Amino acid sequence: MIERFKQHIDKFTKITEEEFSEILSFFDEQEVKKKENLLMEGAVCRYHYFVLNGCLRKFFVNEKGVEQTTEFAIETWWMTDNFAYERREATPFYIQAVENSWVLGIDYASQEALVAAHPKMERYFRFVYQRAFAASQMRIKYLYELSKEEMFHHFNEHYPDFVQRIPQYLMASFLGFTPEYLSEIRKKIRS
Amino acid sequence: MIERFKQHIDKFTKITEEEFSEILSFFDEQEVKKKENLLMEGAVCRYHYFVLNGCLRKFFVNEKGVEQTTEFAIETWWMTDNFAYERREATPFYIQAVENSWVLGIDYASQEALVAAHPKMERYFRFVYQRAFAASQMRIKYLYELSKEEMFHHFNEHYPDFVQRIPQYLMASFLGFTPEYLSEIRKKIRS
Q1: Is the CB of residue A57 less than 8 Å away from at least one CB of chain B?
Q2: Is the pLDDT of residue B148 over 90?
Q3: What is the 3-state secondary structure (H, E, C) of A23-60?
């Protein structure tokens, strides 16, 4: 499973097996059970997570007390509250496992030490953030442009495996629907 | 004015004057007049812009034909459609000068050549994208959490100079208001 991380690094910069084992020494491998929290609101955000297997989600609890999911991360995706992570500050977010998952975690000081010791990882993280930022800019465009229902159709069309995999009540939370409304839209698509 | 770019790089990684002049050779400096477009919908997105002086905005034209502003960039901020830039694809966005501006532009091949020749710039861009992504994640949280009026109050409180500087009709376009409604909110704040 750990090979997934090497393959992901190799997409952006080639590393040897020896370099990979040195790089891995900066990380902690961690198993996380479904619904277990890796981060909770008010805690200092210490770790940046790479998903080896499984699925995480990030959410905050809005003023009505409702969980609002803002992001998912499946295999080879990274997840943290980047703002709080860089500042080692308290976060307004939760990070929770959607499925039983295996993750790699790295704290900010270790990530900085890693890129200093392995400049190839500077390149790797540059690409990781570059692509994450690009995706996030498109997401903002969609948030302005599409209705909630159009957003669901967009995700369904572009990421069908992802939509199938995420439990319906979490997909609803991500889109700002009630689960009942999402269920109706899905029925419409089938008929 | 060009010193602004060196100071910005120095925030993340120290470079010599000699390195800086080599780095600059990868860029084109460009003056852009107020309301002039640096990028138009349907064109291939070739350049990544660094604002030396002035202000840019990014917008798309929605299906009602209305300009929807999604981003601003003032001094030391970068701007492009990152998705289309990396793929050298046609963009759905416009980039337009809000004020007479001076920018540095770099195409994707040159940016890749730059980071290969100057690994310190790999570090610089890693930080630029890391912070841009972090800001963008917070922005997504606010888009879920805040009403348009609350979003205005948030910007007004956290970035008062920015809100003063941006023409009211563009601030309205950014927030998804009519200019008349924004004007009313501003009156309420003053009274």
Answers
A1: no
A2: no
A3: HHCCCEEEEECCCCEEECCCCECCEEEEEEECCEEEEE
